[in-house]
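Letters spell out the chain; backbone shape is given numerically. Both lines appear below:
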Amino acid sequence: LATLALGAAVGGIGGGAIGLLLRKYRTFFGEELTNCVVLASALGLYALSQSVLSESGLMAAVTAGLVVRQIAEIKERQVRRFQGQLVTLAISVLFVLLTANLSLGSIRLLGWGAVATVAVLIVVVRPLSVWMCTLGSDFSWREKVFVAWLAPRGIVAASVSSLFALVLAEHNITGGEAVKALVFLTIAITVVIQGLSAGAVAGLLDLEGSGAIAIVSDRELGFQLARLLCELKQPVSLIAHPSASGPALSAPFQMSEECHAIAGSALDESILTRARLDRVERLVVLTLSADLNRAIAEFILTTFKPPQAIAALLPASGASERIQPLSWSTAKLEGWEGYVESESTRIAALHLPQLSTKASPAYATYLDLDASASLRPPLPGVSPTNFTELTAQLAEAVGSDRLLPLVVRRQQRVLVMPAIAELQPGDRLYCLEREWSAAAICYRPIAPIPSATAEPTDPSPDTPPPFPVPAPAS
């Protein structure tokens, strides 16, 4: 109790003094100097408390941090950024200290047998452990292969092996240095081979997926887009910006740990921090005010620097070149917002066909806006000309406000509110359609009707088997 009491007292008094100093001279210190002052103060309070009573320094540092955070009102984003820098620095220093106690001679003594052992770990042990751990999971075979290849080995393994070597040496048991040398050899080989090849392997396996998407909206149209992305298991953060005329978000939806919604101003940095804007790769600003979209996008780009920002803008808005204009105008979005509020709209899932590998494809495809089903299984392929005709029919349906493209899933990638010109064969297109529409992509045979074995089925495991071809729409 004395240790805790002393640490809390030293940390509380010292943290209060530092917090008042930082708050009074906020403009003088700035973000970078504030980080240095807080770090130096924490180390000083730790040393002071330790000099008075052993083991009280940790309590002093923790208490000082809590007090400084409350008094100086340091932003969470600033703390997270500085924490990441400290963690990187600490791990780097620890690796240097651990390897300083390792001799190259102990690695050479292992010989080629150690290299063969590491090869067995990479090729046999790691894939076998991944296969056993993912039995019954929803991982695809591509994801399992990637996890099996990318075996994380780092500071924990190095620390444990070094400690294990010391314990063995204390008990006069030989072999501790060999264990430590083998662990560091494994780390070195896997970091060089697997670390440098991770991107290439992900590309070969078509696993270059989309990062988290942040959506800022004040209307139901944006809320539906966020819900659709959640249903597609795409990480998304929705910021429900307040609107005087638009409907409020009925309730925060939490479909997974990576999909959540927060109600609040998109110009409030604390709200954006809670929405994890520092982790997103794409920003989509979807209010019905082009000026507000521009202001929000500019503010978030300046504060959090996401790699990509998309916003509904006017043609000559004067926005930064870093902001990519949305494919659809604010007038079209406002019209669809009216449909959402006054009608029953729903999501139409359209699987675009692949191009045929044959010179003469057996089927032609067309868009049926009054079909009995919203999705029909794709057949092996169509001609490039026929696919162009299909996209032209889609563009006509979008122009007549029968469909509004929301999301395209292309293997592991996700495109938000794409233009028709961006569509490619094999894409899965998710559109918003009005209640009296029933859009579907249908097929009709090209005479003469081929036999059942004339066209091979798509080898892709995700493609369902052929189905009875419906009669063309009249």
Summary: The first helix runs from residue 2 to 24. The chain has a mean pLDDT of 81. The chain is about 50% helix and 15% strand.
